Amino acid sequence: MEEKHKKLFGYAVVGAFGTVAVGLMIGSIPFVMPAFRRICLPFVPATDNQVRNVISLLKKRKGNVIDLGSGDGRIVLAAAKMGFPAVGVELNPWLVIYSKIKTLYLGLSDSASFQRRDIWKTDLKKYDNIVIFGVEQMMAQLEEKLCQELKKMDVSLLVDFLYQTGVNHYLLELALIQFGSMKENLYIIIKIHYDSHSSLVISNSL
Question: What distance in Å separates the CA atoms of residue 188 and residue 131, rounded to the nearest whole number?
């Protein structure tokens, strides 16, 4: 009888560990999947310094804000605290849920919202300030998307990506504003408009 109880206990322990392992695997899928996409954008929380830099640039702006790839929502919530109507777009469902819960906790539901959506399928036409923390490999595709969707005369774009001198000089890099050394991430804020020939023109907005 005692041997039977030991076996049952062993099965229960194995079952419990198996359940936990499966749960961890399922829960980690949204965090692992970015590595299998054509452009890998893993979740890396914005540092306090990054948030401060973005907010310092937004202080000079008006209108609404969208954060493409909003992660845990800290940029959106910081913008909402400043009075901006702010939207976060994020593909990871767990991060979206977390951001929504934090929004409710902070009482910012009137000004901050989050959507589970692919950033490349997000229409940017109605936004005045666009924030994106990305990688250099996405700059060409981002530039193409901006050319197609941004027709307003005054739209600011805040981009944070690792810049490598002499590699892939995209149009978006023309208005770089540096915080720190060249080895660190850079931020740009630009105005986008179209000239008489419908060509994209980017100029420093500060």
Answer: 10
DSSP 183: T
Which residues lie closer than 8 Å to 157 by C-beta, 6 or more apart? Answer: 129, 130, 132, 146, 172, 188, 189, 190, 192
Q: Is a pLDDT exceeding 70 seen at residue 3?
A: no
Instruction: Count each helix (H run) and each strand (E run) in the chain, helices first.
Output: 5, 8
**One-letter identity of residue 105:** Y
**pLDDT, mean of residues 94-120:** 96
Please name the residues in contact with 162: beta carbons below 8 A apart, sequence gap of 6 or more. Answer: 135, 136, 185
Using one digit for the tens of pLDDT, what is the confidence trace for 142-157? 777 877 777 655 666 6
For the full predicted model, state whether its pTM sits above 0.70. no
Cβ distance 107 to 136 under 8 Å? no
- State CA 146 to chain mean position distance: 16
Residues across the chain: 206
CB 131 within 8 A of CB 66: yes
CA–CA separation, 67 vs 96, rounded Å? 12
Query: SS3 string of 78-101?
Result: HHHHCCCCEEEEECCHHHHHHHHH
Tokens of 17: 């560990």
